[in-house]
UniProtKB/TrEMBL annotation:
It is a peripheral membrane protein. Keywords: ATP-binding, Cell inner membrane, Cell membrane, Kinase, Lipopolysaccharide biosynthesis, Membrane, Nucleotide-binding, Transferase. GO terms for biological process: lipopolysaccharide core region biosynthetic process. It catalyses: an alpha-Kdo-(2->6)-lipid IVA + ATP = a 4-O-phospho-alpha-Kdo-(2->6)-lipid IVA + ADP + H(+). It comes from Allopseudospirillum japonicum. This is 3-deoxy-D-manno-octulosonic acid kinase. It is found in: Cell inner membrane. The gene is kdkA. Catalyzes the ATP-dependent phosphorylation of the 3-deoxy-D-manno-octulosonic acid (Kdo) residue in Kdo-lipid IV(A) at the 4-OH position. Its EC number is 2.7.1.166. InterPro entries: KDO_kinase, Kinase-like_dom_sf. SUPFAM superfamilies: Protein kinase-like (PK-like). Belongs to the protein kinase superfamily. KdkA/RfaP family. Its main location: membrane.
Length: 239
């Protein structure tokens, strides 16, 4: 990875070696991708994210703009307090995700983390680019379509167990932060903002499973499907 600085524009970009020679602050302008014909769609969800097509030098990507949640978002929707470059949310997420990816864990490959520091020096905005895995859907969408193959659900449980055993405390593991590629039975854990590594322990691991369970409850699946999901995905993990 390589850090590039664009002081006149206030940008600092930490990038994967493959795309570092090409990256520029203009990448964080919607018009840039529209002019290249590579802007495919804006992703649904609470945050602001765009789906980008691949090109000769670049893989398909997801571009995510960091946005706050909760009450604070009404006052400062996308600014964060500056406490140093390496402590910014994009840089921390990039370093963690790259560590997990290089360790062989099923996370999306990080491509670039960018920070634009406000002229005051007190706050910043953040951006994140990661490789986009085609022909995938979230676990939530999969279940809402009435699907629930035992092999897929068992694979999800295996992957979640694996990342927890590695020490990844995912602070918001829910059914929309788990990606599935059904035809190959691949599972990916995404959205590692504010997540961190810690010594594996049953108490915090159980909390992660319980958060995932609550997110599945909120999908309001029919009773038969819900029972199947709980049995194959959650029961042994919460016992």
């Amino acid at each position: 990875m390589r850090i590039q600085h664009f002081p006149e524009q206030g940008w600092h970009i930490l990038a994967d070696e493959q795309i570092a020679p090409h990256i520029h602050p203009s990448w964080y302008q919607v018009d840039h991708w529209q002019q290249l014909g590579l802007l495919e769609a804006q992703a649904q969800g609470r945050g602001q994210a765009y789906l980008l097509k691949g090109s000769r030098n670049l893989p398909p990507m997801v571009w995510r703009h960091y946005r706050r949640g909760g009450l604070v978002a009404k006052f400062t929707p996308d600014y964060y307090g500056w406490t140093g470059l390496k402590r910014t949310r994009p840089f921390r997420e990039f370093i963690l995700t790259q560590h997990l990816y290089q360790a062989g864990l099923p996370v999306a490959r990080p491509l670039a983390a960018a920070v634009k520091r406000h002229p005051s020096g007190l706050v910043y905005q953040g951006e994140f680019l990661l490789e986009r895995y085609l022909e995938t859907c979230t676990l939530a969408d999969y279940l809402l379509q009435g699907q629930g193959e035992p092999a897929i659900l068992s694979k999800v449980r295996q992957v979640v167990t694996e990342v927890l055993a590695f020490g990844l405390h995912h602070v918001d593991l829910n059914a929309r932060n788990i990606l599935l590629r059904v035809d190959t039975q691949e599972v990916f854990i995404i959205d590692l903002d504010a997540c961190y590594l810690r010594t594996p322990a049953q108490n915090w691991q159980a909390q992660v499973w319980q958060r995932l369970a609550r997110s599945i409850d909120k999908l309001s699946l029919n009773p038969q499907q819900h029972h199947q999901v709980v049995t194959l995905l959650l029961d042994t993990s919460l016992s």
